[in-house]
Amino acid sequence: MAYISDATRSFENDPEAAPFINVEREMLRSHGLEIRELPIATTPLAEVERILDEADGIYVAGGETFDLMWVLRSTGAAELITKKVRAGLPYIGTSAGAVIAGPDIEAVSLLDNPDIAPELPDFKGLGLCEQVIIPHAAGTIPIFPIEVFAETVRLYGQRFPLMLLRDGQALLIDEQGTHLI
Fold first, then answer.
1. Among 117, 119, 140, 11, which Cα is nearest to 108's?
2. C-alpha distances in angstroms, 118 versus 19, 80, 128?
3. Structural domain for 47, as ranges
4. pLDDT computed for residue 108 by the predictor
């Protein structure tokens, strides 16, 4: 599994974030998956392509959505990942990794701060799914109270096809269609 952790780079030296950062890796390993670290910001694009060619799937970790999108687009990896996934390489994204799979990331502006990536020219996502994913939507995480999600729907619900996901839910897209699981 090619493991892209760039969404965590803005807080990887924060000791309070360490458990959050490592939980995804440990979960994948506990399911018997071998992880190949793939830091997009520091890996040449040709090496990214080689690693993806050898991988059985891509896992894009959670963290800062706007910084993640900026890294992927500024390095050319966004186009490469999109091409590989459309050619059949499985894609798993959690939190920010799920958000960027959609057509647009603007609607998570109340969860993550777009100012972290001032060079990002627009809010286009990878376009791997039609829905704009809004993660953590149960309102049970103190930094993301339920009022944030109500305001997100109010501000963006008419412009985007929002898919609010609670922790523990996923959007599975396969040959049979799109399924909430």
1. 117
2. 28, 23, 24
3. 2-180
4. 98
* Residues carrying an active site annotation: 95, 136
Please state the domain count of the chain: 1
57 is written with which tokens?
Answer: 């799937």
- CA atoms of 176 and 181, how far apart (whole Å): 14
The stretch 113-140 carries a mean pLDDT of 96
Q: Cα–Cα distance between 26 and 121 in angstroms, integer? A: 34
Q: Tell me the H-state helices in 87-172.
A: 96-99, 146-156
CATH of the domain at 168: 3.40.50.880
pLDDT in tens, 129-158: 999 999 999 989 888 999 999 999 999 999
Tokens for 172, please give them.
């599975």
Residue 117: helix, strand or coil by DSSP? coil
